[in-house]
Specification:
Structural class: mainly beta
Strand order of the largest sheet: 15-22-21-17-18
Radius of gyration: 21 Å
Strand content: 35-45%
Largest sheet: 5 strands, mixed
Number of strands: 22
Order of helices and strands: EEHEEHEEEEEEEEEHEEEEEEEEE
Distance between the termini: 49 Å
Helix content: under 10%
Number of domains: 2
Shape: globular
Length: 316
């Protein structure tokens, strides 16, 4: 394990850059990830995985140079407006520049700490050689694995939008000339997406670069609504069996559904459902007795909708 620090300048602003490498720790404890677990870090510092704040969590180290992909369903999000990605047809997938999913990347992990209303803006699955795992005997270590990466966004309780690229190389698609290091040409879809994001944050440049379109903030004030359609209220299932909860969601503000979350413990914890307008969530019924299943939706502007209750009765 090594920690290096270097200083450079962006304009007149001095910037300190820190880089942590697992180096000889490969196959052993990867200290870079130990702050996520209370048992491997100081009590005051540990047990606070970063996805609770950023929406994504570090899972992959070098080497990796894959491309971020955006299926049509993700391309419908406001984030991609004014881009060619927004016009994808059924079954089509947009591919961003190779290497955008860089040597350090993250996942949207369902670990009980996902921010409420987190939506996915892309979907990429890739085989990697340095995926992070945990063993009770040897701690954190790297090995071959499969990464599922998403660009994400959510609206914090303060009203602020939080965007998570989940890749160290996102900036390489925004500007090809990075502090004197010239790389591949910037991607117009990625650049426009940043203009869109800033607009929804209430900021726009006085002058746009060629090829970019001015964007405006969302005027959607109507929340979406989700409904549980299956199983029916009062359904009895066997404890230990696999249960599928499914439903529908609709946005009433003229936009699209950004995502749906499901709770099977009365709203204590929430989990991402698969799908948007038509969604499902699969879980294992662990205990007997009454169980309250809830669903909630968020639209493409990250405006949350209310929860809807369904009563399931579990029987041993």
């Amino acid at each position: 394990m090594s920690l290096s620090c270097s200083q450079r300048s962006i304009g007149s602003l001095p910037v300190l850059e820190y880089q942590i490498s697992h180096c000889s720790c490969r196959g052993r404890r990867a200290l870079l990830f130990q702050f996520q677990a209370k048992v491997l870090s100081k009590p005051a510092d540990g047990g606070r995985p970063e996805n609770a704040l950023t929406g994504t969590i570090g899972q992959v180290s070098a080497p990796q140079a894959n491309a971020i992909t955006v299926p049509q369903a993700d391309g419908k999000m406001r984030f991609w407006r004014n881009t060619s990605i927004a016009t994808l047809g059924p079954g089509q997938v947009a591919t961003l520049p190779q290497g955008g999913l860089g040597y350090e990347s993250e996942e949207d992990m369902d670990n009980g700490l996902r921010p409420a209303g987190l939506i996915r803006l892309s979907s990429t699955t890739a085989a990697v050689t340095n995926y992070i795992y945990f063993s009770p005997t040897s701690g954190y270590y790297f090995a071959n694995g499969t990464e599922t990466h998403h660009l994400t966004m959510y609206r914090a309780p303060t009203g602020a939008l939080v965007f998570g690229a989940g890749t160290i190389n996102w900036s390489s698609g925004i500007e090809s000339d990075r502090v004197g290091s010239t790389g591949p040409p910037a991607d117009p879809n990625m650049r426009q997406a940043m203009v869109n994001l800033l607009a929804d944050m209430g900021a726009q440049p006085a002058i746009l670069q060629n090829g970019l379109a001015a964007a405006t903030a969302s005027t959607d004030t109507s929340p979406p609504r989700s409904t549980i359609t299956s199983p029916a209220p009062g359904t009895t299932v066997t404890a230990g069996s696999q249960v599928t909860i499914s439903g529908t969601a609709v946005d009433f503000g003229g936009g699209v559904v950004g995502g749906v979350e499901v709770s099977v413990d009365g709203g204590v914890t929430w989990h991402p459902a698969a799908g948007r307008e038509n969604w499902s969530y699969v879980f294992t019924a662990a205990t007997s007795g009454p169980l309250n299943a809830l669903s909630r939706a968020v639209d493409g502007s990250d405006r949350p909708g209310r929860s809807v209750a369904g009563q399931l009765t579990l029987q041993l």
